[in-house]
Amino acid sequence: MIPVIRDASRPMHVDEIARAVQISASEIAGVLVMLELDGWVRDDGSLEYSLARHPD
Fold first, then answer.
1. Does residue 19 fall inside a structural domain?
2. 1-54 pLDDT tens trace
3. Are residues 50 and 5 in contact, defined by beta-carbon separation less than 8 angstroms?
4. Which domain holds residue 29?
5. How many CB atoms lie within 10 A of CB 2?
6. Number of domains in the chain
């Protein structure tokens, strides 16, 4: 999932990410929350995610 978000030219909606990795949007949403808490991704609004700099 990280490569899909990283390679996107703009923030991706959770549904777009789900289609790209072929996992349900509800499962993706849970993973994205964990990645956001760990500093890997950020919610840019309206469930659109982009890669964030990982904290040191």
1. yes
2. 999 999 999 999 999 999 999 999 999 999 999 999 999 999 998 999 999 976
3. yes
4. 2-51
5. 10
6. 1
> Domain containing 8 — which CATH number?
1.10.10.10
Q: What pLDDT, on a 0 to 100 scale, did the predictor assign at position 53?
A: 73
48 CB-near residues (< 8 Å, 6+ apart) = 11, 12, 13, 14
Q: How many C-beta atoms lie closer than 10 Å to residue 53's C-beta?
A: 8
Q: First and final CA of the chain: distance in angstroms?
A: 21
| φ, ψ dihedrals at 50, nearest 5° | -140, 165
DSSP alpha helix (H) spans, the chain: 2-7, 14-21, 25-37
Task: Output the furthest CA–CA distance in the chain (Å, rounded).
Answer: 31
